[in-house]
Design brief:
Blueprint lengths: L7 E7 L5 E12 L3 E6 L4 E4 L2 E4 L4 E6 L5 E6 L5 E13 L5 E13 L5 E4 L1 H10 L4 H19 L7 H17 L1
Parallel strand pairs: 1-9
Antiparallel strand pairs: 1-2, 2-3, 2-4, 3-6, 4-5, 6-7, 7-8, 8-9, 9-10
């Protein structure tokens, strides 16, 4: 389902067992050859049970057209975490036309400090693969996905490069200036 750029959306995450996870207040930006892009404005909320965050910088998120195993987020300055990729299951557009995904714990991160690029939350992955009983084929596939994405981020391969995200951050800025 395609939305008109500027349409307000809620991006809803859940855990493997169906329990609610993060929800992000977003705006639809458009699509390119990589996927559909949504943005979060300064002042937007991201919340989950037990935590509520108000954004102090803009960000854009991309749901790939041809994959359902990750969601890319790129943060604008002054955030130190530039790229944050949630390894996911069933990422895409729900029957209600809203973006949704199952958070699978593993994340690929590129920070602008000495930490650089790394896979995050491997401890949570180990704990949850037992708690939720992830099937072995899912475990193998998503561990391979995390390593593949880490290599692509290190190589600054599009859409994990700065130029691709900066184009979409500019779209978000134009929407805000026209509002």
């Amino acid at each position: 389902m395609r939305h008109v750029p500027g349409t307000t959306l809620a991006f809803r995450w859940r855990k493997w067992d169906g329990s609610p996870h993060w929800q992000h207040e977003c705006v639809y930006l458009g699509a390119d050859e990589y996927g559909d892009w949504v943005g979060q404005r300064i002042g937007s909320r991201s919340f989950r049970p037990g935590r509520d965050v108000t954004l102090r910088s803009t960000s854009v998120m991309m749901l790939p057209h041809d994959r359902q195993d990750f969601v890319l987020t790129v943060n604008d300055a002054p955030q130190v975490t530039r790229v944050y990729i949630d390894v996911a299951w069933d990422a895409g557009w729900g029957d209600d036309g809203l973006p949704t995904a199952i958070d699978m714990d593993l994340d690929v991160v590129r920070r602008l400090d000495e930490r650089g690029v790394y896979i995050d939350d491997e401890d949570e992955w180990e704990e949850h693969r037992v708690r939720y009983g992830y099937p072995s084929r899912v475990i193998e596939m998503l561990e391979a996905t995390a390593h593949e994405l880490e290599a692509r981020v290190r190589a600054f391969e599009a859409p994990f490069d700065d130029a691709t995200a900066d184009r979409w951050l500019a779209v978000l800025a134009r929407l805000d200036s026209n509002a």
